[in-house]
Amino acid sequence: MDMWTKFAKTGYEDQDWPQLLNHELNVVPIVKGLDPLNISLVENDPFHDTCDDVNTTSGVVRGQVVQVLDKDVDQFLGIPYAVPPLGNLRFAKPQPIQKPYPDIIDATKPKNWCIQPINIPGLNASEDCLVLNIWSPSSASNELKPVMFWIHGGALVLGSIFQDIYDGSVLATRDLVIVSTNYRLGQFGYLYGDREDAPGNVGFYDQLLALKWVKENIHQFGGDSDQITIFGESAGSWSVSAHILSPLSKGLYKRAIMQSGAHLYNKDNDVVSKAEALSRAKQIAKQLNCSETEDWLQCLRKVDANELSKYSRNPTYPVLGTEFLPISAQKAFETKKFNSDIDLMAGINRDEGSMFINGFIKDINNMTLQDFTTGVKGLDAVYHGIDTQKVSDYYLKNVNTSKPLYLRFAFSDLVGDLALKCPTYSFAKQFAIAVKDMHRVYFYELFY
Length: 448
Known about the structure:
Distance between the termini: 13 Å
Order of helices and strands: HEEEEEEEEEEHEHEEHEHEHHHHEHHHE
CATH topology of the largest domain: Rossmann fold
Domain Carboxylesterase type B: 53-446
Number of domains: 2
CATH superfamily of the largest domain: Alpha/Beta hydrolase fold, catalytic domain
Number of strands: 17
Strand content: 15-25%
GO cellular component, one term: plasma membrane
InterPro entries: AB_hydrolase_fold, AChE-related_enzymes, CarbesteraseB, Carboxylesterase_B_AS
Strand order of the largest sheet: 1-17-16-15-14-10-11-9-5-4
Structural class: alpha/beta
CATH class of the largest domain: Alpha Beta
Helix content: 25-40%
Family: Belongs to the type-B carboxylesterase/lipase family.
EC number: 3.1.1.-
Shape: globular
């Protein structure tokens, strides 16, 4: 946490941490243990004091004070940053709030998750979900503080800023203003209709509008709009890489942190063409009895949200060749058409592949060599063009293939390298090569 917050504040210049330069392989290992049992987090007091009301372009916002690590933090939950994307706004770019809410916005309680294909008892999910959270140090200081803007993960199909693990109050105790944003997921965020009112990638447009809202309003919460760091994990990290590539995001942030994910894996097959995206959308329309109508897209807008969510792919792939993402990462770096005027920190974890094994191996506790081979072939169906024999030989070198545990470790390494480690490192490396030491670039691997 120290390295992320220091980077957000200063760009992190440390003699012990060499930058990822265009001619050197500099990956800093992080092995220091954590002791979460000795950390006292948010005090669970239902009678928190409200903090001062804050004027924003959305309206007057009322939050509350929470005590974290013996410090007071102003917490604002569920501030709307866009018009609810309902009815004809389903699949469309988010619309900014033109007229402030007349009543005080209650930001003391969590709001809706965005619609997603999971069934969690008590989960409040809705298309009316375009809100953000803010945590800022309770302080009378007039000095504006650096801002960290969080994008959650979940394969672009799952997740919410109201998950407990995304509570930003602890980070705010480091004298920073923390923001997290909901964005549309699955078909609601990425269905492509080849029309202005269904341009695809609207989940990214949600993030973009939230970032613009922060740029315009964060000074009211004590944040410095010229010191914004965007950061995210997994699909959130992929989103950060997309904002680095998108011409629409230029100038909205100063630094970026990518945690385990980037657009560059699978030989650019982590995106779909407009033709493929349109074909997939029309196939969904057919399955939902909308294909025979003159306006199949309007028909899809009337489908029950929970029913439509069942057709969300996991993972969901963004659309390439669009206004937001005009060219691939490879081409962007080759032609220098990306947002190069930022500092970048990127990193990975040791056992990235462990969470994906069950998707390819039925019984990981009794894994056999045949299971490994079958799993590699399954990976080839996703990561096209794998030389299955060479890959197997490489990852099974010096592995006792009669031991299920060792086979599992080997397959975990393979999946982690393919899905997260290699693309994240490759993106950071190509960024470093392209900026030619003009900006700071760091890379780490967490071994704990």
